Amino acid sequence: MSPGMITFTGVLLAVGAEFCYCFNCISPLGDSVDWFMMYKVPKATRPMPKKTTGKEFYYLDANNATWSFMDVNIKEPDQNPLYYTLQQIYQKNPEKYGMYNDQPPQGSVPLTSSTTNQATGAHMKGAFAFDKDSGFWLILSVPFFPAPQKYNYKYGSSQLIKAQAILCITLDSKYLEEIEKIFDITKPMFFDGNKPFLQELPRVKDTKKSTKIVVDFKSKGGQEFREYAKSASFGADLYDSLVAPDLKDNLLVETWSPNLGSNCSTYKVYDVKKVEFKDGYWFKSTIDHAKWAVTENRDWACIGDINRAKSQFRRGGGTMCLRHAGVAKQFRNLIPEEYGMYNDQPPKSSVSMDIKQETSGGHMKGAFAFDKDSGFWLILSVPNFPAPRKQNKPLLKKFNREMNYYSSGPNGPIVTDFITRKGQSFRGYAKSASFGQDLYHPLVAVNLKDNLYVETWRPDLKTECSMYKVYDVKKVAFEDGYWFNSKTDHSKWAVTENRDWACIGDINRNISQFKRGGGTMCIHHAVVAKQFRKIVKEKEECP
């Protein structure tokens, strides 16, 4: 007998001694737990930090709300919370239990005639068991699962390929009536359960024929949950039409094969395209069958059984949301930071992801990375740099589409003010390939209303001597005596002659750059501007 089996048997004997069946969620240690979440990983199809077989999972619960990787076989008993929890159905024969799945296990027979139509029946998967005191409710995304009571626990090999999400909640038996109300609206497909009990469902009927329901729950341990569910007649997406408006926050949603696109109404609903755990393990939504959501700013995280797809408008289904700051943060952290690296002279080992690679592309070099709260932007002049980390293709494709659109749109430049997290003022100047002029003279100097000293690589434009002059810097010298001339200087910077602005960018004062996009970022800072003015040793004067 495995250690896990020994532990679980011990739990049964202990509760038996108290003459209480006490249906609960069970942890990997075999102990009762108020609630838990599992994120089963997909079978690895590429080199990864972990060579996963699809049997492993990440786990968190009421006692430790941090994702922990469990190198455990979900098909086997040992340290498997899903196995331990369902054994209460297989071993105890509860009076009130049910198993439902729109894709039931092979060989099972639907127990309710009104829900046998898989095309319009509820898109719901789960199981529950209650005695007179308490019970558990499993909400999951796994097809053909769980096995009916007569077959005992089985997790099919076909379900190892994709990622899946599982939620278990320990509830007081009084909530069984609320669950029945949800089932009355959603119409799940029951394939196993206590027949006398299921035949009575729903004992409390919805006389108003509602198409949606929102129910608040509290676990046995006092944790706040909220269930959102809809009927087949609801005719809309659950997340943007019910969950987001009720929670009054934007939602980040991961579901299987979403085809609605991100919803950008009052409360936005974003489709998650990639999941990445803190240890570096990641996978794309194309192999993720889980259905979860998290608020962008508030403390709600949800696991459910319905997708963001048009076909689901006419299917019942729902999601159960947990109000927990730590868990919400854990889910938000699964969404990788947005980052990109760009360079008109990229590292030789890298592969261009741009859709516009000819010489009229932007003469720009830099990198950025952002999470949901903050980020950084590096603007630099270094060719063949930085080395690639890994390609964030969905984000970069989005930027490329926007760049392509902009280059065929207005020819004018853009001026944008920025303020850092600590309150420092910056101003960015940028132009498209269609601008057809120098960036510094007609844009930066005129906007800042001051003369400019400009250092760029091999300028072939003479010093501009109009109303606001633009001087080419010929030599740079620091206070310690170190100096060099512009022939060995690949940097691109500028400083106002009298005002408090200093700039670093990525485009040169060169005729060839008239047809290149590029820009410069200026800081409004008296001391920094003074430091740049002090290093101007020689400049090209006006005639």
TrEMBL record:
> Pfam families, per this entry?
DNase_II
Q: Which domain of life is it from?
A: Eukaryota
What are the entry keywords?
Hydrolase, Signal
InterPro entries the UniProt entry points to: DNase_II
Q: Which GO terms describe its molecular function?
A: deoxyribonuclease II activity
- Which positions carry the signal peptide feature in this UniProt record? 1-22
Write out the GO biological process terms: apoptotic DNA fragmentation
Similarity annotation: Belongs to the DNase II family.
* PANTHER family noted in UniProt: DEOXYRIBONUCLEASE II
Name assigned to this protein: Plancitoxin-1
